[in-house]
Amino acid sequence: MPELSARWRLANGGRRLGVFLRGMRCARRRQISCQTRRELRAVVTKEAPKGRGWAEGFDSQIFGKGLRLLFVACSLLCLLGSPSFAQSAREFAREGFAAKDRKQFPLAIQLFSEAIKQGQFTPEQRGFILYGRGVSYDALGLRGLALGDFDAAIALLPDFPNSYVYRALAWTDRREFDKARDDLLQALRLNPTSALIHNNLGSVYERKGEVDRAIESYGEAIRLDPTAAQAFYNRAHAFIAKQDYRAAISDYDRAVDLQRDFADAYSNRGGMYLLLGDTDKAIGDFDEAIRLKGTDPIFWSNRASAYMTMGRYKDALADFDRAQTIDPGNAATYLGRGRARLYSDEIAGAIEDLRVAARLRPTNAFPAIWMHIARIHQGNPDREELERNAARVDRTQWPAQVLDFYLGKLDMDRVRQDAGGGVGAEGERRLCEADFFVGEFLSHGQQKADGRRMLRKVVDRCRPVDIIFAAAQAELRDDKEAR
């Protein structure tokens, strides 16, 4: 189960990674955010708005098989300037395109609608106007209305690739990826040398889980336009999905070389360095992302998560405070700050933050687990609170089994067995989490020696990049000091 994610940012425009790879998915861009998508996880990778980052300005270009579309475009311009055409329709259409270019989309929609109502346009001219209105609807998030206009534009103007591209973006937002792919393939038949279309196609393949095809499409976009920072950025995210972190770093290097203010790329690259254990480079990249765009809470949370893995809880707490100030409704920030407070001996504050995280994401097991851990540290394990929180959690998702262990419904061998059911790196990560959560619980009860043994196993076997690694070290340190 995703830890509690901030938002996604990745794709045709800029992605961020989730957890130290996160989820690589959040709002309209995937981003690598140091909060987990899984657990409200560690680093979030951003993915830019699917396609729309690169699509800006795309509608102003006339793509395709040249002469035919150029003739149509010229016909529309001649129409708008023709003294024989009704004055009102001519002006409404002309001003509609001007308003769209100025990003005054509500006004553009009104003007296009009035032009369509009053004008006697040829089918192709009407198709361009419907396309312009569809782009305006899309910019406002009115996908249903946009799809209707793109359908009409394609029917009237079947050789204009832009309509297929924008309709593909609308299908992608609806998670109808096969339809999006088909539209982009048709756009490529009309304009096979468009790097932008190949880039968007790569994004759709990635969303479909066809990572190799995504990498191939991003590579073709790069071949056609070697200066396309977004294509390098997107391909990096696809490499992350294949756990090829060095290749991802190489593409992020190219992205920031081409676009020096690419804050998301710096943040995502920082997440990769963190995964590879190079904390100095990771912190340096998070610093640069914050310098470029200090108003983005994901960057502060990412650096905070990096500090957490290093056991620098006070520094992490300061960064989580900044992230929470910018985005006070982010459950991942409350979870991260709650853990930072827990290991900074601010137990009351930790409990309050974890309570908020559980309230914001009641079906996610991680806030409930960490809330119980905080209560144990406080010396006040609240059984009724644990039962209430556990009752709301999605029981089909890991790590709900840990709550059943806390409630005495599962033994620790079964918890570890369920955790190890994951494949590869995911299974290893879950097993590390199981050992930490069980070991932490035992170390505060009657089986202290068994608990410490499991915590030492976490430190010996698990990745330093995981939050639980530093947490296990903190538990062992606190136990040693207490003795």
From TrEMBL:
Full protein name: Tetratricopeptide repeat protein
Repressor is among the record's keywords: no
InterPro entries: TPR-like_helical_dom_sf (IPR011990), TPR_rpt (IPR019734), Ycf3 (IPR050498)
Organism of derivation: Bradyrhizobium betae
Claim: Repeat is one of the keywords in the record: yes
SUPFAM superfamilies: TPR-like
Keyword field: Repeat, TPR repeat
TPR repeats, residue ranges: 161-194, 195-228, 229-262, 263-296, 297-330
